[in-house]
Structure to design on (737 residues):
């Protein structure tokens, strides 16, 4: 038994592979937060007046709030005055007009991360918007998308070029008063991605954003806004990494999705922020607010997330099902290893008639990891005939990790049908030995068992990313057995 | 092929095997019999390398090398196969994927090229046919939702696929009806060859009507108490292991 425990320990401990630091000249503002800093960020980005006003309102509201304390997460107090709220690679100032103008060092970083922009542009058919620290450095495939009327650009550019769309939709799903971290983000967000799909357009390629935190003592506060107009379709993927640092870095993003009549948005995240070392030192604090609104009838939003990184993950991608017959989905794999903590889940708010929601959550805990599923299914009085199906499965590796499930259900209409299933299992020595007795290494065995456990979620990911997610999961659990 | 000398094994601090000696040559089929708790299954598991089974004394030579030095997966790659009494379920992993991964792990070890999906499917189909098994079994998760008989047959399928040098079958006959027993027995007989040794761990002699052993050993209190030929099993069926109600041929004693 003891030998078994050690073997699992070895298996699940492994070094972070994206932990390199890129040596770039950066343009950062001094640490600390006050109205001056916010004005400075807004000025650096040439924002119209309404944006600054909105930021300041958010900041003033934030000052009245305190950090939420209801989750299972524990961390030392965050000093919000010790964070730099803006950091940009210097070359940005000279204004890169194409990939050729971008610092080659930065491009090499993306290559190391597996996001070769040029290659993607040429081969993969994936349009990538890459956000480095605080600014968006390149958006590939922009011209091709523009022919279809699709707007896919950095958030800063959207604020400058399409202020009417930003003004109409920004904060309409996640208001600046929403929660502590969303308010902070609203005040200081520095960049992110913006996407608008016009009526009737089926976006022909996966849209993708890659986020990376590089600079020391920098917070990353990006904001993503996706609008799918009537009868349109878009599939979107977000990936994230960060270098290894002993200090904790704060990431507080906001993502808003809006689907109008008959529109569909699929949003997938592969989150691999630096999780901290074996002893729980360092790592990203990931406090993220993601929410979609199925605003139109027959609209559909699905969130798929694979969360393997971060010291702390606090996120609840949610769907407000406002339109009749709207459908919301949440598919999640969250893995915690070493001293990682995850408190993640979803909210499905049923307002429209015959709305449906599906929740499939897979939590994997290893080492001393803590993993909590927290979900709310709310069926309003107006939601006649609403249905929900929830399934929450937990898998434990070893005996020092923990899994919790907190399902909240509020039903205000008698016609609602709500189903909830939950299981907890352990990769036992039995399964491991069974595989090994067939010649599989312990590493391959754990990887196979974990991937089997996550299969339902991986099926929701776009093909190429499903392969990546499988590898990532294997890598996150990979050990150094001799 | 296999030489066990004075093997002593403890599980969770409890001595189970207390000085076991056994020699098995290529081409031979040995049956290990004995009452519950005599250490039959422990022997099979310790040979396959199950963690938690602590060897406190003795040695095991396999093909001239020290078997006990090898990790479970290395033993498997060198041709040792254990058919489980209680095969383990793995959700979300299809049987076909599992079988292919197992075969290719072995092939890699032997320096053979891995089989691709098409070649593998052709191979596994031929094995299914030999064992009179349905192809749909391949696309179900490993052992999940399988009946008792299907699980046992699935073990035999794996054995047929991996073509081990030393096969250890742990109560592969328990819980089977007569038709399933014949399928399992045919699978085992199909593998008999001069290069291969088979050790059958069984409580009942019923399987031995279909798979005729070269040697029969009776385990008692962690040691081999008696050894003999086929006739020993038949004698045991008449007389039992010496404890009332524990006659190996008595079907009523089945769990």
């Amino acid at each position: 038994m003891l030998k078994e425990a050690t073997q699992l320990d070895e298996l699940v401990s492994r070094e972070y592979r994206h932990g390199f630091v890129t040596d770039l000249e950066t343009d950062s503002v001094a640490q600390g937060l006050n109205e001056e800093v916010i004005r400075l960020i807004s000025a650096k980005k040439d924002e119209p007046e309404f944006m600054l006003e909105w930021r300041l309102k958010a900041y003033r509201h934030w000052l009245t709030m305190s950090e939420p304390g209801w989750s299972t997460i524990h961390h030392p107090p965050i000093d919000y005055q010790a964070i730099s709220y803006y950091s940009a690679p210097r070359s940005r100032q000279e204004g890169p007009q194409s990939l050729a103008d971008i610092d080659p060092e930065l491009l090499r970083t993306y290559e190391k991360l597996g996001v070769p922009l040029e290659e993607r542009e040429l081969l993969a058919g994936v349009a990538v918007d890459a956000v480095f620290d605080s600014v968006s450095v390149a958006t590939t495939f922009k011209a091709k998308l523009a022919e279809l009327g699709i707007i896919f650009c950095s958030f800063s550019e959207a604020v400058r070029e399409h202020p009417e769309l930003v003004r109409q939709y920004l904060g309409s799903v996640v208001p600046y008063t929403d929660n502590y971290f969303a308010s902070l983000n609203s005040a200081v967000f520095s960049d992110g991605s913006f996407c608008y799909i016009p009526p009737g357009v089926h976006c022909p390629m996966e849209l993708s954003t890659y986020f990376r935190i590089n600079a020391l003592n920098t917070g990353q506060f990006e904001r993503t806004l996706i609008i799918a107009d009537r009868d349109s379709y878009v599939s979107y993927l977000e990936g994230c990494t960060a270098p290894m640092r002993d200090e904790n870095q704060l990431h507080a993003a906001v993502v808003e999705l809006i689907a109008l009549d008959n529109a569909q948005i699929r949003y997938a995240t592969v989150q691999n922020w630096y999780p901290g070392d074996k002893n729980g030192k360092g790592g990203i604090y990931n406090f993220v607010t993601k929410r979609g609104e199925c605003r139109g009838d027959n609209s559909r939003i699905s969130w798929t997330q694979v969360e393997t990184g971060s010291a702390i993950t606090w996120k609840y991608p949610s769907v407000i099902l406002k339109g009749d017959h709207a459908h919301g989905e949440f598919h999640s794999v969250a893995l915690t290893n070493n001293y990682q903590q995850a408190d993640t889940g979803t909210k499905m708010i049923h307002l429209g008639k015959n709305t449906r929601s599906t929740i499939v959550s897979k939590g994997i805990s290893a080492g001393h990891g803590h993993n909590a599923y927290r979900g709310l299914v709310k069926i309003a009085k107006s939601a006649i005939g609403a249905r929900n199906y929830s399934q929450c499965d937990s898998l434990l590796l070893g005996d020092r990790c923990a899994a919790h499930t907190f399902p909240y259900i509020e039903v205000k209409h008698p016609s609602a049908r709500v189903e909830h299933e939950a299981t907890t299992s352990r990769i036992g020595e039995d399964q491991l030995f069974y595989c090994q007795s067939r010649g599989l290494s312990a590493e391959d065995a754990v990887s196979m068992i974990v991937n089997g456990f996550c299969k339902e979620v991986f099926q929701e990911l776009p093909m190429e990313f499903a392969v990546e997610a499988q590898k990532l999961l294997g890598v996150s659990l990979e050990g150094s057995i001799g | 092929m296999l030489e066990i000398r004075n093997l002593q094994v403890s599980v969770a601090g409890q001595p189970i095997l207390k000085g076991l000696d056994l020699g098995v040559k290529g081409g031979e089929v040995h049956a290990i019999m004995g009452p519950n708790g005599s250490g039959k299954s422990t022997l099979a598991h310790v040979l396959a390398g199950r963690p938690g089974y602590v060897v406190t004394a003795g040695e095991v030579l396999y093909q001239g090398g020290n078997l006990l030095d090898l990790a479970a997966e290395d033993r498997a790659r060198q041709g040792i196969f254990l058919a489980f009494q209680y095969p383990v379920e793995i959700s979300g992993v299809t049987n076909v994927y599992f079988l292919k991964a197992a075969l290719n792990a072995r092939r890699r070890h032997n320096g053979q090229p891995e089989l691709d999906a098409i070649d593998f499917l052709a191979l596994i189909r031929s094995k299914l046919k030999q064992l009179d098994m349905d192809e749909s079994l391949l696309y179900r998760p490993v052992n999940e939702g399988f009946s008792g008989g299907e699980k046992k047959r699935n073990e035999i399928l794996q054995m047929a696929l991996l073509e081990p040098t030393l096969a250890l079958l742990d109560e592969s006959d328990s819980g089977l009806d007569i038709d399933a027993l014949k399928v399992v027995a045919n699978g085992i007989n199909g593998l008999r060859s001069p290069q291969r040794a088979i050790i059958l761990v069984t409580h009942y002699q019923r399987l031995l009507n279909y798979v005729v052993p070269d040697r029969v050993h009776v385990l008692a209190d962690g040691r081999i108490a008696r050894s003999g030929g086929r006739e020993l099993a038949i004698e045991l069926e008449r007389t039992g292991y010496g404890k009332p109600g524990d006659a190996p041929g008595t079907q009523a004693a089945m769990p």
Notes: Chain B has one domain: 2-253. Chain B touches chain A through 31 residues (CB under 8 Å).
